[in-house]
Amino acid sequence: MQISQLPVIIQGGMGAGVSDWRLARAVSSLGQLGVVSGTALDVIMARRLQLGDLGGHVRRALDAFPVPGVAQRILDRYFIPGGKPADKPFKSTPIGSEAPSHAAEELIVASNFVEVFLAKEGHDSPVGINYLEKIQLPTLASLYGAMLAGVSCVLMGAGIPRAIPGVMDRLARVQAVELALDVQGAAPDDAFVTCFDPAAFWPDGPASLPRPDFYAIVSSATLATVLARKASGRVDGFIIEGPTAGGHNAPPRGPMRLTSDGEPIYGERDAADLDAFRALGLPFWLAGSYARPEKVAEALRLGAAGVQVGTAFAYCEESGLDSAIKARVLAMSRAGTAHVFTDPVASPTGFPFKVLRMPGTRTDPNAPARSERLCDLGYLRHAYKKPDGTIGWRCPAEPVEDFIKKGGKEDQTHGRMCVCNGLMANIGLGQQRADHTSELPLVTSGDDVADVARFLKQGHDTYAAADVVAYLLDGVDVQAKFAPVPAAAH
């Protein structure tokens, strides 16, 4: 195992670029598990370079990228000394494909290497990376890039990642891998896959790579049991996310029922069966409103190795979230006006998605609307089988007429938001449009955002990751995690 000492605190792998290398490095340096988000790292790195790479961090990491020629090709295409003019758009990056170009693969591999490399600088503690199972196209090349940088742990949720442990096993042996794609309308005997061959990508590369640990992010013991017994390789632990966690939530079990405000209703059936988790004999962490020392102590008493915390870290100084957004949210939290809405339709994935309602974002009814719908990043597109038997791609947040032409139904577009572009705007990398408008942020948080201002010390308007860790472990007996409660305890 890559992680010899289980952490009490896992920092959540939030959003695109919110859990960036600075945040993960800060948390890992404190002896806990810092986690970078692996979502859209190709676009994020390309846009950082186009802004001039302030501090030279991306270029420093690219200098360490071991595959000859790749770093220079990326710099030649994307780096702009001094940064692009503020009113000019970012240069586009290759949109995902089941058969990506070599240039697209290079950008994915290198960007994942860069993020992990930077998170690992200056300390010897483990660093993890978080991926979404729903975003399948970049997964294979992303894993290889992270493993080249020596990532210690891979976390994955938003789906059933049965294939990923086996993929990691093969990549560790530098063998070719493939991943079956979820394709709407596919027949049982159809075989739609995306492939990656590390030996072809780097013929002179090492004969083996360290295999990271794999933690599956789940909401039920049923799914955890399936993964523990039937995954393609070793599963090393579970993160159990409740419905108060930020980002995408698992839908409620049974028929979808909504509150009078339009939020999904979760009940007793959605509570995790910790007896069943303990019976699996693998470490697990609890997530969703656990950012208090008494909740950490409770998790340890229940047999958990610890907790995963996201929202508290999202608004600390080191996170990648835009500083102006952090300041506004902390002010709202202080004033008691910070609340999230669990939107059942906003995300193109079909998963409930938590959005923070605040002025100047996509959730503000008075904010200027984008002149038209579009899908130019494409991470949350759905694959579908075209009449000629090939794969097509469509997104419920793209122009409605385009979606319908591709076989989609109009009612599937109602209420959908462009999550990809909104998340880029959250971290100061929003696209500039031809109509001279900028992408609006789409801020997602867990329910804990209502009280996140509790981390602010008297007279301060910001707080650090170290403040969160110190608060969470204050008075907590961390040795309790080595004496798990019996399976019958509650």
Provide a quick synopsis of the model.
The chain is 29% helix and 13% strand. With 490 residues, the chain is of the alpha/beta class.
Describe this protein with a few key phrases.
single chain; 490 residues; alpha/beta; TIM Barrel; eight-stranded parallel sheet; 13% strand; disordered C terminus
Tell me the strand order in the biggest sheet. Answer: 1-11-10-9-8-4-3-2
Number of helices: 16
Highest CATH level, the class of the domain at 9-322 and 454-480: Alpha Beta
- The SS-based structural class is alpha/beta
Overall helicity: 25-40%
Rounded Rg: 21 Å
Count of strand segments: 15
CATH superfamily of the domain at 9-322 and 454-480: Aldolase class I
Overall shape: globular
- Within the CATH hierarchy, at the fold level, what is the topology of the domain at 9-322 and 454-480? TIM Barrel
Terminal CA distance reads 29 Å
Q: Assess the beta-strand content as a share of residues.
A: 5-15%
Any low-confidence stretches, pLDDT <50, length ≥5?
A: 482-490
Rounded average pLDDT: 91
**What is the second-level CATH architecture of the domain at 9-322 and 454-480?**
Alpha-Beta Barrel
- Biggest β-sheet: count, sense, barrel? 8 strands, parallel
Oligomeric organization of the protein chains? single chain
Structure description:
- The protein has 490 residues and is α/β, with parallel strands linked by helices.
- It has a domain at 9-322 and 454-480: TIM Barrel (Alpha-Beta Barrel), CATH 3.20.20.70.
- The chain contains 16 helices and 15 strands.
- It has helices at residues 21-29, 41-50, 57-63, 70-78, 102-120, 139-148, 164-172, 198-201, 221-230, 274-280, 293-301, 311-314, 323-335, 400-405, 419-426, 465-473; strands spanning 9-11, 34-37, 127-132, 153-157, 177-180, 183-184, 193-196, 213-218, 237-241, 284-287, 306-309, 340-343, 353-356, 382-385, 391-394.
- The strands form four sheets. Strands 1-11-10-9-8-4-3-2 form an eight-stranded parallel sheet. A three-stranded mixed sheet has the order 6-14-15, with no helix packed on it. A two-stranded antiparallel sheet has the order 5-7.
- Strand 9, helix 10 and strand 10 form a beta-alpha-beta unit.
- Helix 1 (21-29) packs parallel to helix 5 (102-120) and helix 5 crosses helix 6 (139-148).
- The longest helix has 19 residues, at 102-120.
- The radius of gyration is 21 Å and the shape is globular.
- The chain starts with 8 loop residues before the first strand and ends in a 17-residue tail after the last helix.
